[in-house]
Amino acid sequence: MARREKYRSIKDFFLRFWSKEFLVFLFFLTVSTSFWFLTTLNDTYETDIIVELRLEKVPERVVITENLPETFKMTVRDKGFNLLRYITISPIQPLRLQFSHYAGKGGHGGITSADVLKMMKQHVSESTKIVAVKAEHWDFYYTYGEHRKLPVLIGGQIKAKSDYYVMRTSIYPDSVTVYASEEAFDTITAIYTEPFVLDGLTESVKMSQRLQHVYGTKFSKSDTVSVSIFVDRLTEITVSVPVKMVNWPDNIQIKTFPAMVGVRVSVGVSNLSLVKPDLFSVVVDYKDMPKDSHKRFPLRLTAQPKGIIKAYLKTTEIDYIIEHLK
User: Fold this and answer.
1) Tens digits of per-residue pLDDT, 224-266?
2) Taking CA atoms, which of 2, 92, 167, 199 is between 20 and 30 Å from 316?
3) Which of 106, 133, 59 minimizes the C-alpha distance to 216?
4) CA distances in angstroms from 243 to 27, 84, 282, 295, 296, listed in the order given
5) CB 169 within 8 A of CB 209
């Protein structure tokens, strides 16, 4: 019984909702909305329309190194009815350009905005006025297969934290094949990664980095390389190295005091095994003998192992005694 009463209440509610007065109101609301919509569409407006741009019939042996923009904006003015048609029912067809008509000399081709404006008038109705056409560029570049293999260099700034240093860097691949005109290769000698900044490094880093695009060129494969930066902790040690005599006549003998001197070495922790005394050379050269016998003899560090950061003598002069032999 309760369920039947509930059903009847719901039925009465909807009958009141769809009453004659409500239906009349709904009818006039629809009519007025439609009238407003038609009146609005009959006014004149300006709007931007996106148009596709295609370069077609490119010969097989031609490599496009810099293409035309994929799309461009065109500002048009017309009644709302026609503008709505361009957006919904009948979009403007892509503008197709044949390669042979616009390819110039030296691997460069292009089209002017005036030519585009003239061509686009054939793609719109007579009532539509094209106010302007906009694009970043109307040029394209191409080659007939000219290419070179160029080195890839790091274009970023790398700095290690205090007490650390950058041992080395590597790039993989370390070169890339570049397609461009012969004129372009007169100025392009290397390809750089996009700029980046790494500061305060305390450990090695490996990352992917995009290559900087050079306008008018094209890479044969990926435009991304792997950059590895190897960082080590810096330390200092001192090694004792014997003093050697060079360029001395056979009849002259020199004794130095002391016979061994200290060499201060800055090196990465991972390269400590390179610091061996016999890999250093500290000399007193006869050519450097002081004219004043009261002055100390200058020392020179002439050899050091590869892989260390810096090496310097703890003392740059030494006492000596010269003996002339018979």
Assistant:
1) 999 999 999 999 999 999 999 999 888 888 898 999 999 999 9
2) 167
3) 106
4) 111, 93, 5, 18, 14
5) no
